[in-house]
Design brief:
flat; single chain; 2 strands; mainly alpha; two-stranded antiparallel ribbon
């Protein structure tokens, strides 16, 4: 028991001794830092006094300086250690479009994929197709409504509804002799313009789909290697015919054609 107590006493003494050494070193380091700080402050005192005298001569108050320092501290220009990173300009000579982005732009904005791919010459084709389909759909819808109303008027027995007269030639009138013929004419034209209106709508969807496909394919092919070396190479080749495992009997002599583009 005595031996154990003696050992414990020795460990405690060593530990206290180490702790005292750490405290002493820490105090010395802090004193040294304070001394260095005081030395730097003494060196800066002439510059600070000159700055204060210049500020008093210019009539700048302490509150103005404080507000300016506060505004500078809160400025977003001080982010990232007050270093403004200039955005690197894109090299259009080596730039290639992203197919996924071109696809989504073409889906959201008609012609947006062509603009993103920098194929501006395709915009008149895209927008021309859209405008042509919209005009055809509007025109056919108007004619369908007019002939539908004319067909309804000629089919009823009300003499006051005669909107069909504006479709007749000058000097022509509808009588009992030609009434059935005009009924067939108005019905066929009504159905024709309705069919053309629906067809114009599907053409509009087709132009939209083609613009999207064109934007995606154009972006994909922007990275396609197009070489100027166009060559056709013809050379003999040994082709396996699968008749036998023997290399001599199971092989045939043929011609290999290679096209490079």
């Amino acid at each position: 028991m005595k031996i154990k107590l003696t050992l414990v006493r020795i460990d405690v003494r060593h530990t206290l001794h180490r702790l005292m050494m750490v405290v002493v070193l820490t105090v010395l380091a802090a004193a040294r830092m304070d001394a260095q700080t005081d030395s730097i402050a003494k060196r800066l005192e002439p510059a600070m006094e000159a700055t204060d005298s210049l500020r008093r001569e210019l009539g700048i108050s302490d509150k103005t300086v404080e507000n300016k320092l506060k505004a500078i501290a809160e400025s977003p220009l001080l982010l990232n250690d007050t270093v403004m990173k200039t955005k690197k300009k894109r090299d259009w000579a080596t730039w290639s479009p992203d197919p996924q982005r071109a696809l989504w732009l073409a889906l959201v904005i008609p012609g947006g994929g062509q603009i993103y791919n920098r194929k501006y010459w395709k915009l008149p084709l895209v927008y021309g197709g859209f405008m042509g389909c919209i005009y055809a759909m509007s025109w056919n819808n108007m004619m369908y409504k007019d002939y539908s109303q004319a067909y309804l008027d000629i089919m009823d027995s009300d003499p006051t509804t005669q909107s069909y007269n504006r479709f007749l030639h000058f000097g022509m009138t509808i009588t009992s002799a030609n009434e059935e013929r005009y009924k067939k004419i108005f019905k066929s034209r009504k159905d024709k313009y309705r069919r053309w209106r629906d067809m114009s709508f599907f053409c509009l969807i087709g132009v939209y789909a083609l613009s999207v496909i064109d934007a995606y394919v154009d972006a994909e092919l922007s990275q396609f290697d197009i070489s100027d070396d166009l060559s056709l190479r013809v050379e003999p080749a040994v082709i396996s015919n699968g008749r036998s495992n023997n290399p001599i009997e199971g092989s045939s002599i043929g011609v290999n054609v290679g096209l490079r583009f």
